[in-house]
Amino acid sequence: MTSEPPPQTRFTAEVVLRWGDMDAYGHVNNVQFHRLLEEARIRAFSEWFHASGGDSMLRSGVLLARQEIEFLEQLTYRPEPVAIEMWVTHLGGASWDMGYEIRDGDALYARAESTLVAFDLAAQRPRSLSRDERSALEALLGEPVAMRRRR
Amino acid sequence: MTSEPPPQTRFTAEVVLRWGDMDAYGHVNNVQFHRLLEEARIRAFSEWFHASGGDSMLRSGVLLARQEIEFLEQLTYRPEPVAIEMWVTHLGGASWDMGYEIRDGDALYARAESTLVAFDLAAQRPRSLSRDERSALEALLGEPVAMRRRR
Amino acid sequence: MTSEPPPQTRFTAEVVLRWGDMDAYGHVNNVQFHRLLEEARIRAFSEWFHASGGDSMLRSGVLLARQEIEFLEQLTYRPEPVAIEMWVTHLGGASWDMGYEIRDGDALYARAESTLVAFDLAAQRPRSLSRDERSALEALLGEPVAMRRRR
Amino acid sequence: MTSEPPPQTRFTAEVVLRWGDMDAYGHVNNVQFHRLLEEARIRAFSEWFHASGGDSMLRSGVLLARQEIEFLEQLTYRPEPVAIEMWVTHLGGASWDMGYEIRDGDALYARAESTLVAFDLAAQRPRSLSRDERSALEALLGEPVAMRRRR
């Protein structure tokens, strides 16, 4: 499955597969796709929120409120990383949505979308995004994820 | 978060947590929710497709085409299982959609929905559901999953 | 592979497998054997250290210092749990060794041994075992693990 | 904890951590150390057995018969890989032992040793190492792993 090149406002994380990501079907397990997305997100955060102190988002806390994924191509282990493109699809006061594409060149293995909530772990409640966090996310605002399998 | 009791047409799998499902935030990691759903599905399949030879669905092959989840409550490890309620939300010729709720009594931790495709692993292509498979799935047809966080 | 029945001083945890524990070879992955042992240990601790407040050991902290395993039989997923027998093979001031056998009836899938250190997570250093903890562990003192593959 | 530089006959795999490797204690979980060792091994095999067709060892089959690990330092997630040094500690007709050190510069997080068995997956029995496989392994023969915590 091929698709057009990603636009400029995306951030790409190279995420390395592990042989152990494969299941008894001999391909990367569906659950492990979410592990790859999590790792891409973590790597993106340390770049995006650099002005706010790098891993401040992770240290203060961020929760996943929603995730949706469409699996397009089977992926098998290889030593080379996959490219996970990320961009922002919606920006709220304490939360944002982000899109992902798991790619290798023209191949598109999966598209996904998450809702993330900035969360004060100590107080155990959502917190407002800071000005630095908002401007980092705004710079990556892009189109909605083109989900095709929702009924 | 509480919600009304599940209707009759649901199938419940008791899925056991592991301490290792928790992440550095001290709660069950978002990725592991998908592992719990996978395990519930596997256990459901061996019941649902009993007439077609028990694990025939798994042996011949079934792929996950889509998954959507809303995380409602944080879950922490305890020795007792969670109850994962499952039902069918759409039935096609070679695929079906199913809903899930991860519960413990009145608590609702997550709701989710999957699209599954009966897949011929040898031929590497979708295959039609058999009559026995269809009638097993039809018996569990129920309401759509009430997703509330889609934009 | 069969072997003699376990002696009286062992504690048994029933640990449930997951389909996702299998790897591309179609059997439970070697790494996941360690996950099963971890889960058995966690369940044992809440029993053993009941007098000291149940999960006190986990909350105050315990680190794994060493682990050794011999894989004897391939294990494939099934809905039934495996039995993990545990006993104590050495008792020190701040640490202890424990043996494990992963079994199903007469079948013995793996034998293993761990060294565990009671650890003060706040101070980040080992701490002495309490009197209650020692007496719980003493009650399970048994023979060394009969490792056969060390060179 | 520091230690002398590794000798020449070692093979180094750079293995990338994932945030999800951490557990509720906020450090890389003991089980995931085995996942890192597995990944290092897989990457080593494709180099070592290049003359025998690259991933021939994996495709024909190789089983882990034994593993021993000593945990020396707690490891926390960071985007940079760890270096896993590997060498051969014993060479048999159908099996070999290999040593590992998980390092980052002078820091030594863990040392480990595995026994691996060349295994014919189709026939489900051990097979002899080929001449190419033996000579690849011989080139990496080195000292035993200096385990210090065995009783």
TrEMBL record, chains A, B, C, D:
<dbReference type="InterPro" id="IPR050563">
    <property type="entry name" value="4-hydroxybenzoyl-CoA_TE"/>
</dbReference>
<dbReference type="Pfam" id="PF13279">
    <property type="entry name" value="4HBT_2"/>
</dbReference>
<dbReference type="InterPro" id="IPR029069">
    <property type="entry name" value="HotDog_dom_sf"/>
</dbReference>
<dbReference type="GO" id="GO:0047617">
    <property type="term" value="F:fatty acyl-CoA hydrolase activity"/>
</dbReference>
<protein>
    <submittedName>
        <fullName>Acyl-CoA thioesterase</fullName>
    </submittedName>
</protein>
